[in-house]
Amino acid sequence: HLVFCVVFLLPSSEVFLKLMNVPSPAVLCCSPSSCVLVLTENQGAFTSPCYPQIYPNSQACRWTMQAPAGFIIQLSFLDFDLEEAPGCIYDRVLVNTGKADVKFCGPTANGLTLNSTGNVMELSFNSDFSVQKRGFSVSFRHVAVALRNQKVTISHGNQVTQVSGSVSIPTLTHLTLCFELERTGNKKKEWIFTYSDSSNNVALSLGSEKSGMKMIVDGVECPIDSILSSANFTSTMKPFCVLWTSSNGHVAAYFNGNYSAKSCSASSGHSVPGGGQFKLGGQHSFNGNIYNLRLWDYAMTLPQLNALSCDTVGNVIDWDNNHWSIQSSIAQTDTSLSCSEYREDSLK
């Protein structure tokens, strides 16, 4: 093992060595253990090399924390003291939360807690050739994530998000389907969801093609561009509801507090067959993220739509872990989601 020993310097000496690009003497005696690790335990702790003694020069450490699907990593800085510099150009800790890289130096991270957006978080530590400090001590734990705290990417290669096989979808002669959607890209053809019957025929779907927005019901294409268009889906997460009634063939859309309906007479008398498979996207999947998709076996009235809250449970499909089969790599924790437990205004 390498052993590092200290020679204490006055602050002015440290500055001189830094300016002259001269390595400072190594640090307090210790034998640092490996600091490139993958950590899969459900809780634990780790420190910078030699902590609580000052850390050695020229360190390049990386701790990768991994949790099972359905969990995030919660990281807490118990103690933090690194060399301070503008932009953390000398010694630094970099935390990758899954969505962003966050850089720390000086005392800035002390007492801070961070959550990952997925089930992996990485912490890197680098020190340069001079000026050592006490370093850091962190703890981490796995936190189970309810689906209500996560949005899901619709278009993601071969990864398919679908309703769990334990959910039984009945035959539907009227329905209300609500979801929240944000766009990350544009396509000429884009489908938000697809429900296929046991023969793999499209029984219910919503999306757009060159001819405009349409809703497919039991194989019948209902053009709905006059009440809902692809331009209504933007980069901001917004709620939408679509409704259908077999008895009169009416299709309706509800968003921004407005209700619009039109007739699709060809769908009158049809029904959406039960026992099929519901999935996000379609042959040409929408580029973006979806949240809080719920399905009811009745067409809501306008007063019911106005009173609908984000936590109203769908009686056929609900935005709940038990209702969906989702790969963890395409689910993102987002504290701004309307029904997130971590939303700031819900914590007050």
Short description, anyone?
This protein is mainly beta and 348 residues long.
Query: Low-confidence segments, ≥5 residues, pLDDT <50?
Result: 1-28
Task: Tell me the structural class.
Answer: mainly beta
Number of helices: 3
Largest sheet: number of strands, sense, barrel closure: 7 strands, antiparallel
How many E-type strands? 23
Q: Sum up the overall morphology in one term.
A: elongated
CATH class group of the largest domain: Mainly Beta
User: What name is given to the CATH topology of the largest domain?
Assistant: Jelly Rolls
Spatial gap, N to C terminus: 51 Å
**Major sheet strand order:** 19-18-17-12-21-10-23
Annotated CATH architecture of the largest domain: Sandwich
Q: List SSEs in N-to-C order.
A: HEEEEEEEEEEEEEEEEEEEEEHEEH
Kindly report the average pLDDT value.
88
- How much helical structure, as a percent, in the residues? under 10%
Amount of beta strand: 35-45%
- The figure for the number of domains is 2
Radius of gyration: 27 Å
Explained architecture:
It is built from 3 helices and 23 strands. The chain is mainly beta and 348 residues long. It folds into 2 domains: 33-145, Jelly Rolls, CATH 2.60.120; 150-347, Jelly Rolls, CATH 2.60.120. Strands 19-18-17-12-21-10-23 form a 7-stranded antiparallel sheet, with no helix packed on it. The chain has a 5-stranded mixed sheet with strand order 1-3-8-5-6, with no helix packed on it. β15 and β16 (220-223) form a beta hairpin. The protein is elongated. 36% of the residues are buried.
What's the helix and strand layout?
Layout (H helix, E strand, L loop, with lengths): L10 H9 L16 E4 L3 E5 L12 E7 L4 E11 L10 E5 L4 E4 L8 E3 L4 E7 L8 E10 L5 E4 L8 E2 L10 E10 L6 E7 L5 E8 L2 E6 L2 E4 L14 E8 L4 E6 L2 E6 L13 E4 L7 E9 L5 H6 L16 E2 L5 E3 L10 H4 L1
Parallel strand pairs: 1-3
Antiparallel strand pairs: 2-9, 3-8, 4-7, 4-9, 5-6, 5-8, 10-21, 10-23, 11-22, 12-17, 12-21, 13-14, 13-20, 14-15, 15-16, 17-18, 18-19
Protein name: G-protein coupled receptor 126-like
Organism: Notothenia coriiceps (black rockcod)
Pfam family, one: Pentaxin
